[in-house]
Every structure is written in C-alpha cells, then in structure tokens.
Design goal:
By secondary structure, the chain is an alpha+beta fold. It is 39% helix and 17% strand. The protein is built from 8 helices and 13 strands. The chain has a 5-stranded mixed β-sheet with strand order 6-5-4-10-11, with helices on both faces. Strands 1-7 form a two-stranded antiparallel ribbon. A two-stranded antiparallel sheet has the order 2-3. The two termini are 41 Å apart.
C-alpha cells in the first residue's frame, strides 16, 4: 500500500507541476491590429456547419505530394473517404487533429488504400507539395502500418479550390494577419464512395469504434445523424487583454488538473479502505497468553 501511495503521489506531483509550468508567462499570440473591441469578429468568421448528405465538388483540383494536380474525384474509388481540413504549418491544433486520427485508426482493422482513403487537405494556399510529402512521411512512421501509404494523401491547392471544398464541408476559417496564422475549428469528416458527407467528428480524439462504424456506414452509402458540436478553436479571444491565446493549452491544463483530482480521490479511497480494514481486523491474542491464565 505504501508503494502504491508513493507512486500516486509522484504522478500527482508531476501533473500539478505540468499545470503550473504550462501557464505562459506572456501571451501566445500577438494582439490583432486595430481596436481590441473589434477582435471577436475573427471568431465569428470561423466554425463548422454540418452538411450531411451534401455532395462534394469532385471536380475541385488539388495537388498531391508529387505536385501533380488531380481532381478530388480521383480519391473516390468505391471506398469511403476521411477528410481532415488542416494546414501543415499550424503551430498547435492541426497536429493534435492528425495525431488523434492516427491514434484512432491504429485500432481500426481496415486499411487505408484498400478499405478507405484519408485526405489531409491544407487550407493554406502558400503550402507546397514538398511540405506535404514531408508531413506524410512523418505521419506514416507514426501510423506504423507498412503498405498503406497509397491510402494516405496530404494535399495542397489554390485558395479558390480549397475554399470551394471547405464551403462544401461547412468548414469556415479565417486568416489573422496580425499573428500570421489561420483561426479555425477542429473536425474531420467521412464521405461516402459517391462523394456525399455522411459523418462529422469534432475535437482531437476519435474513438476507433466510432471511426469503424462511420466507415462501414459510409461504405454502404448511409448518412449519419447530426452530432453535438463541441468545437475546439485554434485561437481563443481574451477580452481583458485584447489578445487571442491558445484554447488547446487550456484543454491540456484542464486535463492535467482532472488527472490530479482523480489521483487525489484514489489516495483518499485507499486510505479510507486501509483504515477500515484495520478497524475490522480481529485482535490476535498474545503468544502464550492462554497458558499464563492457569
């Protein structure tokens, strides 16, 4: 019991330290130009509208990792398609999205390239195929399933073409000239082999069970139902400072705090259980006590 409690205390201390250290000493993003009171307008431009059963513009031209321009329909080959709108130079949220997708798909028995396709599409028209191929190589190592590379596509495109696709997805984003970053929410979508939107997933963690169900349903041409929108944004406006700070950092801090609380509860439970067992245990007679009474 002492060893268990010691381990819990060590983990608890590490989580508390993580919360304290993760708090930035200065704002993470530069204030928007102009009066701070106008800054919330940026957040009004971003969001996600679920457009279930909406056909995607399959004639949109995108660049693959080799720099070749190909139509979106070339990725719809009788298989469902997962679409992740991101951008590769995103400082935080997009990495969480792709990491979460990799993590979820690792536990799904189906393979990209034979059972479904994955499209990571950059919303930044400045990003190149060279950058995309580097990202693909890194994520393929993380995915760790050789032979599935043909089912993963890291795409770029012109502003016009990417915007057409984003509008069809219901994905609204905005460029912040002050911080030189895109403000956007986090979500991935699943489309049917015919190119119609069938499922939306929000956040940065995607359940393998839910991903598998969505892929099976989409492969059969079925359309899911709207899901509750719990959006994470790459920027969060602080009206007191007139600045945008990272909301994902707050999520990490909250997760560490919840872990600390859970561990504290475990400590209390173990202490209570140990005290209860001590009180209920019978008192052993002294050695030779029965014979001494005679």
């Amino acid at each position: 019991m002492k060893y268990v409690l010691s381990l819990i205390l060590i983990i608890l201390g590490a989580n508390v330290a993580a919360v304290a250290q993760s708090a930035p000493s200065q704002p993470l993003a530069t204030p928007l130009a102009g009066r701070p009171t106008g800054s919330p307008e940026l957040l009004k431009q971003i969001g996600i509208e679920q457009k279930l059963n909406t056909p995607l513009p399959l004639d949109v031209m995108l660049r693959d990792e080799t720099g070749k321009e190909v139509p979106l329909r070339s990725f719809f080959n009788g298989r469902p398609v997962i679409i992740a709108p991101v951008y590769y130079n995103c400082p935080m949220l997009c990495t969480f999205i792709l990491n979460g997708l990799i993590k979820g798909l690792r536990e799904v028995n189906y393979n990209p390239g034979t059972d479904f396709e994955v499209l990571a599409v950059s919303i930044d028209p400045r990003e190149t195929a060279e950058l995309a191929v580097g990202k693909k190589q890194g994520y393929m190592k993380r995915y760790g399933r050789p032979g599935t590379e043909t089912g993963w596509h890291f795409l770029t495109g012109t502003e016009e073409n990417v915007k057409r696709l984003a509008d069809a997805l219901g994905y609204r984003y905005a460029w912040d000239p002050a911080s030189q970053q895109y403000a956007h929410a986090s979500a991935i979508m699943v489309a049917t082999p015919q190119g119609k939107l069938s499922h939306y997933f929000y956040g940065v963690e995607y359940s393998p069970k839910d991903l598998r169900f969505a892929l099976v349903s989409a492969s059969e041409g079925k359309i899911g139902t709207p899901v509750e929108q719990v959006l994470l944004y790459c920027f969060h406006y602080d009206p007191q400072t007139g600045k945008y700070t990272s909301m994902i950092l707050g999520i990490v801090q909250a997760g560490a705090a919840l872990t600390a609380l859970a561990l504290a509860g475990m400590i209390g439970y173990f202490l209570w259980k140990e005290r209860k067992s001590q009180k209920s245990a019978p008192i052993a007679p002294a050695v030779g006590g029965a014979e001494s009474l005679g």
